[in-house]
Design brief:
Elements (H helix, E strand, L loop, with lengths): L9 E7 L4 E5 L3 H6 L7 E6 L6 E3 L4 E4 L4 H5 L8 E7 L2 H5 L3 H13 L15 E6 L4 E6 L2 H16 L22 H5 L2 H4 L3 E4 L4 E3 L2 E8 L6 H11 L6 E6 L4 E6 L1
Antiparallel strand pairs: 1-2, 1-9, 2-8, 3-5, 3-6, 4-5, 6-7, 7-8, 9-11, 10-11, 11-12, 12-13
């Protein structure tokens, strides 16, 4: 259950390469949509409280078409509790799902764990998005981790514009001109991401013409209360690495310590 001691301006990510999912804290559905590498397709809603979707009679599930995505984004999904969906290309593919596949989707939404890798040729889906208290504990399956590397780089950069009480980091107006952190920079950290990392915007510093965002290797968490408490201790220690923005060359790099 979400606690009151929410740690703001951090992102926790743990990449499970074998099972093709990422557990995260601090990345919300709206950020997922806005920062996706490719525009999200239609969404088949497995668990939700959205009341304005279409109804697929074959699966008895509601769905959101790509053109209506903004309505869902404005519906405060973080208040739903469970919010689980899988993307799909065409509704005809949803109509072709058999009973076993529909049962697998329902099981996945209930347990937050699929019976098999949740990628269906009939849907041509790239993701399976499973969360309780969106942004607090998210578990997202990726067909291609390149989508995740892109998303994380874009999300960190977008948060830089809104962190520190809405003023952006250091109150600088030029932040909106920051280029996104390229996925190749994020990809270079994949060994650390597989261990579980907290990226701390709250501890970002401006030094010698650079902005440095520290990160700490934290380990594997499913309890985000515990993760937050452990982060409050570890942030007092030297960081394990930095995401560094050179304000002169306008380029990002990753530095491991």
């Amino acid at each position: 259950m979400k606690a009151n001691n929410v740690v703001k301006d951090i992102i926790y990510v743990h990449q499970n390469a074998d099972q093709q999912f990422v557990v995260s804290y601090g990345i919300h559905f709206n950020e997922f949509v806005m920062n996706a590498h490719h525009p999200l397709q239609n969404l088949l809603l497995i668990k939700h409280q959205y009341e304005h979707g279409g109804f697929n009679i074959h699966t008895h599930m509601e769905y959101v078409e790509q053109g209506d995505m903004k309505k869902l984004m404005n519906d405060h999904v973080q208040t739903y509790g469970d919010f689980c969906w899988i993307d799909f290309e065409e509704e005809v593919g949803v109509d072709e799902l058999n009973g076993q596949e529909i049962a697998e989707l329902l099981y996945m939404g209930h347990i937050k764990q699929p019976l098999n890798l949740p990628f269906y040729s009939k849907l041509n889906n790239r993701f399976a998005y499973l969360t309780h208290d969106d942004g607090w504990f998210n578990k997202v399956f990726y067909r291609d981790f390149e989508d995740f590397y892109h998303l994380l780089g874009e999300t960190i950069t977008s948060k830089m514009k809104t962190s520190k009480a809405g003023k952006g980091l250091f109150g600088m107006k030029k932040e909106k001109d920051f280029p996104a952190i390229g996925k190749e920079v994020i990809r270079s950290l994949r060994d650390k991401l597989k261990e579980g990392v907290v990226i701390s915007l709250e501890k970002a510093i401006l030094a010698r013409g650079k902005i440095e965002i520290p990160f700490w290797v934290m380990g594997d968490y499913f309890d985000m209360d515990e993760m937050g408490e452990d982060y409050k201790q570890i942030r007092k220690a030297p960081a394990n690495g930095l995401l560094s923005f050179d304000r002169k060359t306008k380029s990002w790099s990753a530095l491991l310590k």
